Amino acid sequence: MKSNYMICAILVFGVLVAITAPHLVNIALKGDNATYETDVKSLTTSAEYQADLAAAIPVAEEKVTVNEEIAPDPEKVEPLPEEENVPTKEVLQDPIVYDGMTLKQLTDKFNRILKSTLAGTGYYFAKYAIDYGVDPYIAVAITLHETGCNNGSCSSKVTKCNNVGGMKGSPSCNGGSYKAFATLEEGIKGFIHNLKKNYYDKGLTTLEQMNTKYASSKTWATQVNRYVNQIKAA
Predict the structure, then answer these.
(1) What are phi and psi of 80, to 5 degrees?
(2) 34-38, 151-155, 178-182: which has the highest mean pLDDT?
(3) Residue 70 has what pLDDT?
(4) pLDDT: which is higher, 65 or 73
(5) Residue 152: pLDDT band with limits 50, 70, 90
(6) Residue 116, exposed/middle/buried by CB under 10 A (0-12, 13-18, 19+)?
(7) Which position among 105, 127, 143, 207 has the lowest Cβ density within 10 Å, counted as fewest Cβ atoms?
(8) Which of 135, 194, 205 is nearest to 164 (CA)?
(9) Residues 33, 36, 40, 46, Cα dihedral to 10°
């Protein structure tokens, strides 16, 4: 009989255990979860956590509109370099070299009167007369008088020896007393240089002053002056 009671008691106890065990486990788990949630909430709300979180997340840069005009800081703007001296219109023009004319204009005037072998040599007379400080009208006028080129044909001193001023010296022109030059340009340059050295540098700057030294004819200056007037009118 006692054995039967014992068996019944054991069975009842087993049934009770089976019924109550799951509830006991859930209670235990809920207790653990509550503790975990409490710990997580405490961690995420702490000041140290919030600071680390802010440092870890980059702040989005402010968007700048490309077309937005930003006024420059006047203290940081470098001044523009000073503009170099730019030639004015007057400077860029050809300079006046004689009698209100440029070198080209003077050349053109001479080319209108120089003929025959001397045709087209106006530039040499203009250039070297200006370079040496000799009156270009006088230089051309003496040449016309001494060579006869104004009459349509130049003397043999010009055509054969490039001597445009009746200069004497060596090397000789065909064995005579007149000087020979290799080219017409050299003859013109040598002639004007002779006027500079032997006349202008000695104070003989007018045809009247040159007359006695340059030619034996007393009317030489008068004859040459006629050519000067023709040149001016050309």
Answers:
(1) -65, 145
(2) 178-182
(3) 57
(4) 73
(5) confident
(6) middle
(7) 105
(8) 194
(9) 130
* CA nearest neighbour of 147 among 162, 136, 133, 134: 162
User: Mind spelling out the 3-state secondary structure of the chain?
Assistant: CHHHHHHHHHHHHHHHHHHHHHHHHHHHHHHHHHHHHHHHHHHHCCHHHHHHHHHHCCCCCCCCCCCCCCCCCCCCCCCCCCCCCCCCHHHHCCCEEECCEEHHHHHHHHHCCCCHHHCCCHHHHHHHHHHHCCCHHHHHHHHHHHHCHHHCCCCHHHHHHCCCCCCECCCECCCCCEECCCCHHHHHHHHHHHHHHHCHHHCCCCHHHHHHHHCCCCCHHHHHHHHHHHHHHC
**How confident is the model over 16-71, as pLDDT tens digits?**
555 555 555 454 445 555 554 555 455 555 566 556 555 555 544 555 455 555 55
Q: Which two tokens stand for residue 74?
A: 């006047």
As given in the structure block, the two tokens for residue 37 are 């949630």
Are residues 114 and 122 in contact, defined by beta-carbon separation less than 8 angstroms? yes
Name the amino acid, one letter, at 57: I
Angstrom distances, CA of residue 8 to CA of 1, 14, 19, 120, 207: 11, 10, 17, 154, 169
What mean pLDDT is reported for the chain? Answer: 79
